[in-house]
Write a structure and sequence with these properties.
Layout (H helix, E strand, L loop, with lengths): L1 H12 L14 H13 L5 H5 L6 H8 L9 H14 L21 H6 L8 H6 L2 H9 L10 H4 L16 E8 L2 E7 L12 E6 L13 H11 L2 E6 L7 H17 L3 E7 L1 H15 L6 E5 L23 H11 L20 H6 L4 E9 L3 H13 L3 E11 L6 H4 L2 H15 L4 H5 L8
Parallel strand pairs: 3-4, 3-5, 5-6, 6-7, 7-8
Antiparallel strand pairs: 1-2, 2-4
Helix pairs in contact: 2-4, 4-5, 10-17, 11-12
């Protein structure tokens, strides 16, 4: 309620002489609505927002340049307003006297009120996806923009409410310098003088090499830490162009080994982070210190100039071809880095010698069926099989790309499979019976 009162005071008390900063927790559309209303000098009623009003570009430009930290430009304001006026739902009997421009960032009140749908779930995908995801998409994700730009891509994560709850694992953050950080997780009640396992997990979160940081995957990593009773190190690599994230991964791995001494290492990563995990694995193996195993979830492993030709299904939600192209173009701005010769950006093309050095590494790959990057996973599985490497492929045909961040909404099945593989690596068990343990459906 305090936030809503402040928003009301903000809009009603604003004048051309002084415009206070909009709360930085406002979502992208709430920011645009507020700028529009301030520029027009109108109160935010539904009829006003439904009218095809001429956009006051000069006033909007002034508003955007008076010290407010907006992630949006004037031309994008116009684009968004045009989008509203073409996709607004028909009038309903629901009434509201005045709509405040600022509500919670992810609860959809503003967009539900306006009836705006910017990213509808494709009809062919609705039949393929698990119902839990479809419901969450209808409730939350459809109210986020489908277009990808530097202004709209840096959004507050819409998956915060879909994540699994965090556990009480203890954490400590380490600053390695040059904006490279690591968060260490220790099981609840862990005594630093004791050794939980002689095995650790080093994790690389996703985000298209653009998004994320030390908080990424916090909830799910705390669960892994406590459930498997294993120390976890989450590498907050710099979200910059190639090869910075990969160099950060190598530096972080050296730091972890220095801190932990001789110890068995499991590498893991999701999406863009899976690329870092694979390259780190191959480089460690090349130096005769291969990790014990590697966990890859919805990996991005093919980033050549023509990789988009294999993206399917293109109707898959959230990680659209346009979003993925933005990620790749930002991560790999030089055309020479988009060649299959650059195996550090596309490790499916790594020389066989590197895989021969990694023969002892046990690999677990989880692919999502409703993900444009599913071919990246299956291609890498084929490469590992062709080179007689140890690989376990777990297919999730009805899951979207971002299933790892949705274990609270979609259930814990994927997390359980990952935990079973970690337990398998720690136990040192082998054979078909041991592998069957991964696919058991026991709940946490």
């Amino acid at each position: 309620m305090d936030e809503l009162k402040r928003a009301k005071q903000y809009v009603e008390g604003a004048d051309s002489a002084r415009i206070a900063p909009i709360p930085n927790t406002a979502c992208w559309l709430e920011t645009v609505v507020t700028v529009f209303l301030l520029s027009c000098g109108k109160k935010p009623t539904r009829p006003i927002l439904r009218e095809p009003v001429k956009i006051p570009f000069q006033d909007a430009h002034t508003c955007l340049n008076q010290g407010n930290d907006f992630n949006i430009k004037v031309f994008e304001l116009g684009k968004c307003l045009k989008e509203w006026q073409t996709v607004l739902s028909p009038p309903t009997s629901r009434t509201s006297p005045v709509l405040l421009p600022y509500t919670q960032a992810t609860n959809g009140d503003l967009l539900t009120y306006l009836g705006i749908t910017l990213s509808p779930l494709h009809s062919t995908m609705r039949a393929e996806l698990v119902p839990e995801y479809a419901r969450y998409h209808d409730q939350v994700l459809q109210f986020y923009p489908q277009d990808a730009s530097n202004a709209t891509i840096h959004l507050e994560s819409p998956f915060s409410e879909s994540d699994i709850a965090a556990t009480t694992a203890s954490t400590s953050d380490h600053d390695l310098g040059d904006d490279l950080k690591i968060r260490e997780y220790n099981p609840c009640g862990y005594d630093s003088a004791q050794i939980v396992h002689t095995t650790i997990l080093v994790w690389f979160a996703g985000g298209g090499w653009m998004l994320g940081g030390i908080e990424s995957d916090h909830n799910i990593l705390s669960n892994i830490c406590n459930e498997a009773q294993i120390r976890v190190f989450n590498v907050a690599y710099r979200r910059k162009a190639f090869p910075t994230p990969l160099d950060d991964a190598a530096q972080a791995m050296q730091w972890v080994q220095q801190q932990c001494g001789p110890i068995k290492v499991i590498l893991g990563g999701v999406s863009a982070g899976a690329l870092l995990a694979v390259v780190t694995m191959l480089e460690m193996s090349q130096h005769r210190i291969p990790p014990l195993g590697i966990l890859l979830v919805a990996p991005s492993l093919i980033n050549t100039a023509d990789s988009h030709l294999d993206w399917a299904p293109v109707e898959a939600p959230w990680l659209t071809p346009e979003r993925m192209k933005l990620y790749q173009d930002t991560f790999l701005p030089r055309s020479k880095d988009r060649s299959s010769d650059n195996w550090r950006a596309s490790p499916v093309y790594a020389p066989r010698k590197l895989f021969d050095d990694a023969k002892t590494v046990r690999t677990f790959i989880a692919s999502m069926g409703c993900d444009i990057l599913r071919e990246d996973a299956t291609r890498f599985v084929d490469v590992l099989n062709d080179y007689n490497c140890d690989v376990t492929h777990y297919s999730c045909p009805s899951y979207p790309h971002m299933a790892w961040a949705m274990q609270g909404t979609l259930g814990e099945t994927l997390l359980i499979r990952v935990l079973r593989f970690i337990e398998l690596l720690i136990s040192g068990e082998d054979g078909e019976e041991a592998l069957e343990m991964i696919f058991q459906t026991t709940k946490l």
